[in-house]
Amino acid sequence: MRADPLPDADPNDKFYLGDKHCRNSGQALEFKQMNIFSREAFDKGQDMHTQAAPSQAEFLHKNFKAAKEKLKSQTKDSILRKYGNAAATEGEIPMELLLGQSERQVEYDRAGRIIKGQEVEMLPKSRYDEDVFTNNHTSVWGSWWKDQQLGYKCCKQSVRNSYCTGSAGIEAAESVLDLMKANIENKEASGESVKTVGKKKKMVTWGTDVPEDLELNEEALANALKNEDERKKEEKDERKRKCNVNYSNEATQEEIEAYRVKRVHHEDPMKKFSFFLSLSPS
Question: The Pre-mRNA-splicing factor SLU7 domain covers which part of the protein (predicted)?
Fold first, then answer.
């Protein structure tokens, strides 16, 4: 069959549309839809055939189209009852709003406040809900401020989602704060006492100045000097040192004084002179 020789031209200006243009118009299109319906119904178990029982097929097809239109209308009515019809109230809206246009550019910040483009000055709106009391609170969030923190004035709590405890919670918080202050004061007092005791018991160790009121036991000092001489003799000959040497980490005042007396003063410019004096006969 011959096709449309001018498919891009306007159909109203065409004299010839082709041999197949009549298949998609008029009763030919309805017959085609009925054949499609009968085939789909037969595949789903319906006993119908267009050529065997054409009257039955046409009657069932009409009933199907009527039921389909009824279902569509019921669905439309239920949607309109639930959500309303904005198109029906379009005539009630003023034309200034329907056709209103503006070239004004508005800029917002992250919190949703207008920072540029607002011609009329308006009172700033708080980002928090105003006059809304939650969690048994009798004041809004932000009605109390302390130590760089916002809170509730009714219970003086700085946690946003906290439950209001009223005056009892305030008294409990103050008692806990007083207890913490008392504990800190006790710790400071005990620390000062420990420091004073430690200062009294502190020994004169290496590198410290000898106090004027230092009292030494002469007998213990003589024994310490003797032990220091023996230790230096043992250091000169490592092979004669014994393995089972009794050693103690705690040094007495006499042992420290003996070490100061016997140690070699490398920075002393008169140490050689004192050595020759010790060799000269008295």
Answer: 1-143
